[in-house]
Amino acid sequence: MADSPNCDLKSLSPLQLFERVTEQGEKVRALKAGKAPKDEIDAAVRMLLSLKLSYKTTTGQDYQAGLPPKDLVLINNGTTKEEDEDLVDPWNVQTSNAKGVDYDKLIVRFGSSKIDTDLINRIERAIGQKPHHFLRRGIFFSHRDMDQVLDAYENKKPFYLYTGRGPSSQAMHVGHLIPFLFTKWLQEVFDVPLVIQLTDDEKYLWKDMTIEKAYEYARENAKDIIACGFDVNKTFIFSDLDYLGTSAGFYNNIVKVQKHVTFNQVKGIFGFTDSDCIGKISFPAIQAAPSFSSSFPQIFNGKENIQCLIPCAIDQDPYFRMTRDVAPRIGQPKPALLHSVFFPALQGAQTKMSASDPNSSIFLTDTAKQIKTKINKHAFSGGRDTIEEHRKYGGNCDVDVSFMYLTFFLEDDDRLEQLKQAYTSGELLTGELKKVLIETMQPLVAAHQERRKQVTDEIVKQFMTPRKLAFEF
Question: What residues form the membrane-spanning segments (predicted)?
């Protein structure tokens, strides 16, 4: 970090300013602990005071250690007054805009960085192949410190992947596949270890279900995840209810995080209230722990300096903003993140798909007939009221759910562009676009079902057994 008080602080976001103040405070403490010369300490303190003043000028808030700017983290309300059309937190996604959440505004609110053409091109150079269509189409649109991960990769330094799933139902829907399909691609092109957390403890705490049912859902969801094609020699899937009690490293990291996050902070970040059970209040530390390699000594040989990259939907970012704040204070590297957009409900992009509403989702257990019926009956259309109007004015791909789904699952860029042009011009009707989606989704889901049938309980046990993976550390 530059120490010059003349550096341009006006261009920094509130969260970037917060991180600068935090880093400078750590530097001051280190200088004092190391009994550095007085003039060096004084200069560092002046810089700290200057940063705190800039922070207060920008945010209207006094800097408080461990508590990022309120407008970025009060996600129980999810928005500032100026942005009250979007609600985004780990449990809810809602917007009044038929196009869906305004992700450019969300980047500003959360203080992350946009995945731009330069970063995509750098990824392409690093891996020597065309980037995944999720990157090319902006489905993964935001990041934190992906440049650092690429620096490490280019310098032959290891990193690992971490993603997860909250098992709230026995059957997953196609939206749940997005982070796993992308994570599988990342694992293959970078050849790195992967850990997948099943937060069955979270679902027991938040949902009206027994602990046995939560664990059962975790194992059933593991079968769907394995069916995506992960390599058992490079992937460790774990249930919190199973793994927490067997790994001292995992629990040690949980306790370290818990010590450095106050009740006021988790209330501010997650919107917890005094009536929430203490399990909810302590859970964020459990989701944070897999970000640190020492939580998996069997994989990383006890090493604590291996950076983690987390592909996830952006509604999970609050957990990892907290984690990134805590990491330097417990001697761990900050995890990097890649954020995806939300997979919309069939009824429209105002909400994400729900496992509790069978008509909002295409489930991985749906038959070909069910898929056809759901798309024809429930998929929100961007078409006109009459064929004549549609031919004259064309359809709106920005709000049409069938087209949105095709951006996720139709890999052919040229074909997707042809459909967009034909629908926008009015040449292609809504029913015809839905037919293309049906013909795309039916074989995709059927192929997944066939792979899942091959996943036995023994295979699940192999993936979920703590063990050394096919990497040397």
Answer: none
Q: Which residue in this structure is represented by tokens 């761990």? A: 332
Sequence-ordered strand ranges (E) for 199-283: 235-239
Co-location of 146 and 240 in the same domain: yes
Band of the pLDDT at 67, cuts 50, 70, 90? low
- Which value, to the nearest 10 degrees, does the dihedral of the CA atoms of residues 170, 173, 177, 179 take? -90
Tell me how far apart the alpha carbons of residues 362 and 208 are, in angstroms, rounded to a whole number.
24
The whole-angstrom separation of Cα 361 and Cα 365 is 11
The number of distinct structural domains making up the chain is 2
178: in domain = yes
**111-167: pLDDT as tens digits:** 899 999 999 999 999 999 999 999 999 999 999 999 999 999 999 999 999 999 999
- The CATH code of the domain that includes 124 is 3.40.50.620
Is 414 part of any domain?
A: no
Long-range contacts of 118-123 (CB under 8 A, 24+ apart): 119/143, 119/146, 119/147, 122/147, 122/150, 123/150
Q: What is the pTM of this model?
A: 0.81
Q: Which domain holds residue 328?
A: 98-346
